[in-house]
């Protein structure tokens, strides 16, 4: 995703796109970032929010209900956990959750 204001590009590791219903735009169900060997924090969530905002501005997808997913083998810091607990659109996925051990 190109960011014209910052003159840079952004990539996501996961994009979940639904099927368009009639004349509506296809829904962007989720975007996510995956990290191996590290703890994820609120900066990762902020980055995904920024990317979602950029996608919204393009008008290509319906981002009204887009969820933000963080996948990490190293877990999440307290700020990220608080963000997920207080935001309806943030999902933190660690290895036990990913492999159904929760």
Radius of gyration: 14 Å
Strand order of the largest sheet: 3-4-5-6
Order of helices and strands: EEEEHEHEH
- How can the largest sheet be summarized? 4 strands, mixed
Oligomer: single chain
Number of strands: 6
Low-confidence stretches: none
Mean pLDDT: 90
Shape from CA axes? globular
- Helix % is 25-40%
Helical element count? 3
Percentage of residues in strands = 25-35%
Measured distance between first and last alpha carbons: 34 Å
**Strand pairing plus helix content: what structural class?**
alpha/beta
What is the topology?
Layout: E1 2-3, E2 8-9, E3 14-17, E4 28-35, H1 42-58, E5 67-72, H2 78-86, E6 90-94, H3 95-98
Parallel strand pairs: 4-5, 5-6
Antiparallel strand pairs: 1-2, 3-4
Helix pairs in contact: 1-2
Task: Briefly characterize the structure.
This protein is 29% helix and 26% strand.
Please, could you describe this protein's structure?
It is a single chain. The protein has 102 residues and is of the alpha/beta class. Helix content is 29%, strand content 26%. It contains three helices and six strands, in the order ββββαβαβα. The protein has helices spanning 42-58, 78-86, 95-98, and strands spanning 2-3, 8-9, 14-17, 28-35, 67-72, 90-94. It has a four-stranded mixed beta sheet. Strands 1-2 form a two-stranded antiparallel sheet. Helix 1 (42-58) crosses helix 2. The radius of gyration is 14 Å and the shape is globular.
Tags for this entry?
102 residues; alpha/beta; two-stranded antiparallel ribbon; 3 helices; 26% strand
